[in-house]
Amino acid sequence: MSNTIIAPSILAADFADLKNEVEMVNNSQAEWLHIDIMDGMFVPNLSFGLPVCQAINKYCKKVQDVHLMIEEPGRYLKDFVDAGADFISIHAEASRHLHKDIHTIKELGAKAAIALNPHSPIESVEPLLEDLDMVLLMSVNPGFGGQSFIGSTFKKVEKLRKMIDSKGLDTLIEVDGGVKDSNAKQLVEAGANVLVAGSFVFNSADPIQTIADLKASL
Q1: Sign of the C-alpha dihedral, residues 218, 153, 144, 178?
Q2: Which CATH class is domain 5-217?
Q3: Using CA of residue 70, residue 72, residue 74, residue 79, what is the dihedral sign?
């Protein structure tokens, strides 16, 4: 078993049973809980906002990994840290003041990450790499769960891993979208540290066992 972090995405959970879904993650081998925030503008979907994050925070015992798929995320950074976020990922494509927003996240006491859509080159994060705790690579087009994994992500992870290692940094690489047992090991071998799994976990017959099996396969 590797030390890869598994982060189930609450976007794929049963929203009518959210407390128990969070407790399931608490009782599993997953280290993080991934929380997708969508505004219907940056991505063509709405998910949930601060009140749901605050509710999750009451019960979640894992690292809360908040992924802001919203326009101008700098407006809400303090609110999400106050709502329990341990990590905050903001999209390079959505922030007009990326350097400022990253430093604001860190000043607020959270870990800072930049997220990149499938079409965005990893070179866009290089100027800020020393300031980042993590880079989130989208392996599907953001906005909806259950999409098919984009195969070119493997090479993107490898390239980013070489860039991080060449600078002597310990920046994490997170992959989000279409992660399952058929591609997880290859992602880890390419250099990923954190795997976000949504539908694969929550739509399975036994999510706790699915997470354990995924961990054991890496």
Answers
A1: negative
A2: alpha beta
A3: negative
Domain ranges of the chain: 5-217
Find out whether 9 is annotated in a ligand binding site. yes
Token duo for residue 118: 């499938």
What is the token pair recorded at 74? 């700098």
pTM metric for this prediction: 0.95
Active site residue 65: no
Residue 20 contacts by C-beta under 8 Å, 6 or more apart in sequence? none
pLDDT category at 1 given cuts 50, 70, 90 is very low
Catalytic residue among 14, 36, 86, 131: 36
Does residue 165 carry a catalytic annotation?
no
Give me the residue label for tokens 């969070």: 22
Number of Cβ within a 10 Å radius of residue 79: 13
